[in-house]
Amino acid sequence: MGTKHTRVDDAPDDPDDLLPERSVLSLEEYLEMQAAVGNRTRFEILYRLSHADELTPTELDSVMDVDDSTLHYHLEKLRDVGLIEKRVRTERDSNGLYTYYRPTVLGEVILEHGVEELLRREWDFGEAYDSSAA
């Protein structure tokens, strides 16, 4: 499909050496985040939270085609790997809702510089190699 390219950069032999000496997270934790966002439902949850700042499970449920238990399973998975956080209000709002989810900084970064970046580049690739545009 693609061709193998020889890289000329200073990439370390061991992928663990990509991290700074005092890294906050391990390589495994970063890979778990990447794997979590690689699931369509979790990607969509993170995408919607990033573009709305924070949402309740009820609000997410109204815009996504997943059942309640599936939604909560994926919310917990995203929380477990540190991509979203849960905020619980001490009092319910006017709609009776008090649990909100929002992306963490790492969640926003992995979304913006991960899958969304690849999708943006797809547009650039298409335009660069579109023979009908000439």
What's the layout of helices and strands?
Elements: H1 27-37, H2 40-52, H3 57-63, H4 68-80, E1 84-88, E2 99-103, H5 105-128
Antiparallel strand pairs: 1-2
Pfam families: HTH_20 (PF12840)
Keywords: DNA-binding, Transcription, Transcription regulation
GO molecular function, one term: DNA binding
Question: What would your notes on this structure say?
Answer:
- With 134 residues, the chain is mostly helical.
- The chain has a single domain, classed as Arc Repressor Mutant, subunit A.
- The protein has a two-stranded antiparallel sheet with strand order 1-2.
- The chain is globular and about 55 Å long.
- The mean pLDDT is 84.
- Keywords: DNA-binding, Transcription, Transcription regulation.
- It holds the Pfam family HTH_20.
Helix % is 40-55%
- Whole-angstrom Rg: 19 Å
What is the CATH C-level name?
A: Mainly Alpha
Shape: globular
Order of SSEs, N→C? HHHHEEH
| CATH architecture assignment | Orthogonal Bundle
Mean pLDDT: 84
Structural class: mainly alpha
Keywords: DNA-binding, Transcription, Transcription regulation
GO molecular function: DNA binding; DNA-binding transcription factor activity
Protein name: Regulatory protein ArsR
Pfam family, one: HTH_20
